[in-house]
Design brief:
Layout (H helix, E strand, L loop, with lengths): L38 H10 L22 E8 L13 H14 L5 E13 L10 E3 L2 H13 L3 E6 L6 H7 L1 H4 L4 E5 L18 E2 H18 L4 E7 L5 E2 L10 E7 L5 H12 L7 E6 L1 H6 L6 H4 L8 E4 L1
Parallel strand pairs: 1-2, 1-11, 2-4, 4-5, 5-7, 6-8, 7-9, 9-10, 10-11
Antiparallel strand pairs: 2-3
């Protein structure tokens, strides 16, 4: 698979897992002739037919079933063998330890929860095998990243850059992974283009209705598999990338986050953040993205303390 690095920024990649169990018990008919037997024996018989204890509900990697407001999420983004796309390209255990330290620096009174954001579907400049201008990583790669995330008790977040494909179709392909209690989802609509458009040549877009469709799908998974709160992030660089945002609404079991991807000087990034986080639809949380290369070219990377002074406070901070 060939990854395409567009002039402005990122790119990526695809799916598999899960199981269940059923238990039963039998009724016991009392024998009147044995009613005068010692109570100890009847108690033992009752113990033999006692129903099994219910299986504990799945938890988040560091305990609990709700993400906010208890946790502060801090993420690294990347793809296998693609250092231009972020830190998660190789040496995953070392990068996980580095992410752990970075997450601790953003604590600010909350419990840090590191997130590995893996680009699993990557927009590209060529049509590809089905003309959808995107490629997918192999399921084995997703499994490798999930194993590292679990080793370090981190969330794994699967990032989708749809190209010309329908986002909901790409998300459904990831269902075996999304059934897991420690796997979330991100949509990067900057790379979602229409027929006749090429990613990287135009800015993509999504709509509030489309985001609701995905959130509703995730909510159904949470209910069906009794999962803890599911992280759903959508990235946004400019206002027009998300059309009709006012229709966004909350869904049970889904923590929806708008991650603001502003580029430029610190002042420009903060201005973009303020513009895109005023009048947020109810129930939408906020995120903030920093770029190691681009931000440094425009001055300096903001420190964790500076990021936490933003209002509203970003509940997810992503480093690319």
């Amino acid at each position: 698979m060939t990854l395409v690095r567009f002039p402005n920024r990122r790119a990526v990649l695809g799916s598999f897992l899960v199981g269940a169990a059923v238990v039963g018990c039998a009724d016991v008919q009392a024998d009147p002739a044995t009613t005068d037997r010692p109570a100890a024996k009847s108690g033992a018989a009752a113990a033999q037919i006692a129903p099994a204890k219910p299986k504990p509900l799945p938890q988040l990697p560091r305990g609990g079933r709700k993400l906010f407001p208890a946790h502060q999420l801090v993420a690294f983004v990347g793809a296998p063998g693609a250092p231009a796309l972020g830190p998660l390209d190789s040496n995953l255990d070392e990068r996980a330890r580095r992410l752990e330290r970075l997450a601790a620096a953003h604590r600010g009174g909350r419990t840090p929860l590191p997130v590995m954001e893996l680009i699993v579907v990557t927009a590209q400049g060529a049509g590809g095998w089905d003309g959808k201008y995107r490629s997918r990583i192999k399921p084995a790669e997703i499994g490798r990243y999930l194993a590292v995330a679990r080793k370090h008790k981190m969330l794994l977040m699967l990032d989708v850059q749809p190209g010309q494909a329908r986002p909901i179709d790409e998300v459904r392909r990831l269902e075996p992974w999304l059934r897991q209690p420690d796997v979330g989802l991100a949509l990067d609509p900057e790379w979602e283009v229409g027929p006749g458009e090429v990613p990287g040549q135009v800015f993509g877009r999504t709509s509030g209705a489309e985001l609701n469709q995905i959130a509703g799908y995730l909510s159904a998974l949470v209910t069906k598999y009794r999962l803890p709160e599911k992280l759903f992030v959508f990235h946004q660089l400019t206002k027009r990338i998300v059309q009709n945002e006012a229709v966004l609404r909350g869904y049970p079991g889904v923590a929806m986050v708008k991650s603001v991807d502003g580029i430029g000087t610190r002042g420009a990034k903060e201005a973009t953040y303020r513009q895109l986080t005023t009048q947020l639809p109810r129930g939408v949380h906020t995120g903030f993205k920093l770029f190691y290369e681009e931000d440094t070219r425009h001055g300096a990377l903001m420190t964790p303390a500076q990021v936490l002074t933003l209002r509203p406070r970003p509940e997810l901070v992503i480093y690319e």
